[in-house]
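Page 37, top half.
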Amino acid sequence: MSPNGLFIGLITLDLIYLADNPPQANQKLVARDSTIAAGGPATNAGVTFSYLGGQSTILGVLGKHAIAQLIKSDICQFPITVTDLAPDTTNSPPVSSIIVTQSTGERAVISLNAVKTQATIESIPSHIYTQLANHTYQILLIDGHQIPVSRELAQIAKTQNIPVVIDAGSWKPGLESLLHLVDYAVCSNNFYPPGCQSREDIFTYLQTYHIPHIAITRGEKPIQYLDHQQEIRTIPIPPIRTVDTLGAGDIFHGAFSYYILNYSFPQALGKATQIAAKACSCFGTRKWMD
């Protein structure tokens, strides 16, 4: 039976360009390639979870702007349910513009994220509460872009023994209010809570919230995680020719959420690493699935 996952957070439209280099001031560039896809950490994670064999529900703000239709047309290629926290809004969903440097695969991103699309807990549809209570979902992922909604639903998941994963890409004010609800904190190399200067500081900070499982991804460098003895261990990254790093962390989190349901923490990290590495070898966030 396919596992069900609930993915809470950001839904965007990503305009992705492959170029020789990012533009300088007043420079016009001709891209070598381009693609358009739905994006956002929770969205890309939900798409990955679905591709691997799960069933995903993405919970975020979308609305009825024309751009929302483009997002839906991409997501509907997969067995995914999009549950809208603001179905009547006519505001545009966030649009991200991304330039990927061809020689390195590094990306530069500009986006509003969820700054202007914050939802309240009153906007959570009643069926989401019912499905959590009925254990429809086997796992819940939050990306930090809808903190009040995430906190509300993570509290329910906690009472139902449904594991909660946080995609900790960067520190966002308010995250401290829900960290005690997290079972798996998988952080990027850019995640620095207040007062943290090193990865050791980050591990120590997250341990104060009694998070059972903590890991930090570091790009092409080995993943660091805490074992049962609270010792830092590493998982190597497979060598690849990097084409595009866009969405690699999101894809990693989606794969991790899928594999952690059947594997140990280090095993799930290792399997997710293989998926993210494959994604980095292709341009865009979807071509790796071909």
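Page 37, bottom half:
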Amino acid sequence: MKQSFVLYSLSIIGVLLLAHCHKHDSPNEADVTIAITSPREGQQFHGGEQVPIRATITSSVMLHGWAVEIRKKSDGQILFTEDSHDHKKSFTLESSWKNTLSEHADLILEVFAQIDHDGKKTSKQVMFHAHP
């Protein structure tokens, strides 16, 4: 009797774990919309100025997080990065990066939407310029 109860309990726990760990429906890249409102394409920022980072990511099904990075166009050096692993259909990103560069640089802001846990993602980018 005790053995039957243990087997029954383990079976129930197994079913619950499988139900909890199911894969969400993953969107296609075309189902994800990324809108970057700041910085704007070609915008310029002076030394010491805060660069506001504003974007929204939306999808009709569950996403698995987001990431944002600012890097130099010339050599790909990453100057700023931020990310979040969260399960939602939409994200609002609001952050900032302070321009501390000592020379002129064309920069790329790229916003990534994590589509699934297998590494599938999509992104959108804008280029802007930093003055010393």
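Margin note: The chain has one domain: 25-130.
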